[in-house]
Amino acid sequence: MSSLRLALVQKASSLESAENRAALAAVAGTLEPDTGLVVLPEAFMRDFGAPGSDLAAVAEPLDGPFVAALTAFAAEQRTTVVAGMFERSEDPERPFNTLAVVDRDGLRASYRKIHLYDSFGYKESDRLVAGPVEPVLVDVGGFSVGLMTCYDLRFPELARELVDRGAELLVVPSAWVAGPGKVHHWRTLATARAIENTVYVAAVGQPGPRYTGHSLVVGPAGELVAELGDGDHVLAASVGRDALDDARATNPSLANRRF
Description:
- Strands 5-4-3-2-1-12 form a 6-stranded mixed β-sheet.
- The mean pLDDT is 97.
- The radius of gyration is 17 Å and the shape is globular.
- The two termini are 33 Å apart.
- Helices cover 23% and strands 27% of the residues.
- It has 6 helices and 12 strands.
- The chain is of the alpha/beta class.
- The chain has one domain: 4-Layer Sandwich (Nitrilase/N-carbamoyl-D-aminoacid amidohydrolase).
């Protein structure tokens, strides 16, 4: 396939998992025809809640109600979905921060967040377990999609490893905490990951007031394909193989590396 239509769903999740599952019905009505990949934010299954609150109590297995709801949504819309959830781990007090990739047949892949947000006064590792240091890719509509979550965006080595393994599109579901300079960091890091790897970046976040919103798609030459402001919205965009090939022919920085 020469192009892939995306829908980035910038929507706040609540503290009630059932409400977030039910919200998928409203998302369905916003999708354009032939949308091949729907990307929901980090923690869409259930918001993080107040700092220090118990996430183990709300975590689910990968065959639980949230993934079942995603599967039903994907089957109805004939699409693939990426969404953030809290997944039970072997630690009874700390689950994983996981991305589930689902199509009409069920779970395709899962990525457990590698870099936990122990920064800017937060300590995500107090409540969550880091995933294994193993990049995860999945084929969607003929495009190789690499998975990253929120704080992962600040670590160029993960993006580069995904691209070395064939990623053409980096998908970054997030709950990017608001604060001074944070929108600037978000835009800059998403753009940098695209430029340095000559790859598409589709980064979707929850909106304010707690988070920054500004979901965006950046092209492989660093061009801004589309961006939202704040609030609940769905961003539609397409990624294309021709633009990817052109960027890599014009700027063969991956081939010119010496380290």
